[in-house]
Amino acid sequence: MSQSVAPLERSLSRVDRVHPSARVRHFDQLSESAQEYVIAWASDDAVPNVLPEDLRADDVVVFTDYLQVA
């Protein structure tokens, strides 16, 4: 019997400081789906509860602010 595992739900939040061990990625380094996710979040549009595959917890995205994946 196989079990399905629900994907983890993640979100973004603005941060003032970046931990030295954090993976920092500039917006233009993201996949198209991740860029669309960040744009939707920054525009206060509805975003899916599940992150694109190339974003992971504690990543920091440089966009208009530092945004941390939580």
From TrEMBL:
What the entry lists under InterPro entries is as follows: DUF7979
Q: Where is the DUF7979 domain positioned along the sequence?
A: 11-68
Protein name in UniProt: DUF7979 domain-containing protein
Q: Which organism is it from?
A: Halogranum salarium B-1
